[in-house]
Amino acid sequence: MGVEGRERVKVLDIGAHALSGQLGKTIQRLRKAYNLSLSELAEQSGVAKSIISQIERNETNPTLATIWRLSQALDVSIERVLSSGDDEPFIDKTTKGDTPILVSDDGKVRLGIIGWIKTVEWLQWYDVQAEPGGVLDSDAHQRGSIECLSVIEGEFEVEVGEQIQRAKAGETLRYRCDRPHSVRCVSSAPGHATMVCILKAAVMD
């Protein structure tokens, strides 16, 4: 049975509201995945900080142009930003072009964000590609956070506080990351690893 007149408008409004709600959550998760503040995302996208805040709180229906600017700043396709969680398939595929990339200050370490956006507030994981000598310096995460670095190729060194430990291919280092820490590629060839960060984990003794 078709929907006409005011009932059709009501149905469309409900659909737009639901889409906006999902959009706000997606924008917020992506922003946090990049460790961007509202001000930083506003600067990179050209969208006002107040508008981004309203989108994340589901208080406005943004224009397509606004969504496009945000998707460009967050380095994801506009289709992915607009996708509804209720319609997602059981098997979800992320293409290489849709994978956000973070680069270390020295430009020698690249982190592909391969974790699920919906878990970014408590679980994050990355594909790590490093050139020899590359260093990834990180600030402390929230108290109780733990990071796991599993080496696939090459050799890496992790420094936390005054402790330093190395791992080769097939080995894994687990360490508290709620204090400043560094990951270095110490092999003569490029290194490859996966990194998983568990936020709000039980505090270790």
TrEMBL record:
<dbReference type="Pfam" id="PF07883">
    <property type="entry name" value="Cupin_2"/>
</dbReference>
<protein>
    <submittedName>
        <fullName>DNA-binding protein</fullName>
    </submittedName>
</protein>
<dbReference type="InterPro" id="IPR001387">
    <property type="entry name" value="Cro/C1-type_HTH"/>
</dbReference>
<dbReference type="InterPro" id="IPR013096">
    <property type="entry name" value="Cupin_2"/>
</dbReference>
<feature type="domain" description="HTH cro/C1-type">
    <location>
        <begin position="27"/>
        <end position="81"/>
    </location>
</feature>
<dbReference type="InterPro" id="IPR014710">
    <property type="entry name" value="RmlC-like_jellyroll"/>
</dbReference>
<dbReference type="InterPro" id="IPR011051">
    <property type="entry name" value="RmlC_Cupin_sf"/>
</dbReference>
<keyword id="KW-0804">Transcription</keyword>
<dbReference type="Pfam" id="PF01381">
    <property type="entry name" value="HTH_3"/>
</dbReference>
<dbReference type="InterPro" id="IPR010982">
    <property type="entry name" value="Lambda_DNA-bd_dom_sf"/>
</dbReference>
<keyword id="KW-0238">DNA-binding</keyword>
<dbReference type="GO" id="GO:0005829">
    <property type="term" value="C:cytosol"/>
</dbReference>
<keyword id="KW-0805">Transcription regulation</keyword>
<dbReference type="InterPro" id="IPR050807">
    <property type="entry name" value="TransReg_Diox_bact_type"/>
</dbReference>
<dbReference type="GO" id="GO:0003700">
    <property type="term" value="F:DNA-binding transcription factor activity"/>
</dbReference>
<dbReference type="GO" id="GO:0003677">
    <property type="term" value="F:DNA binding"/>
</dbReference>
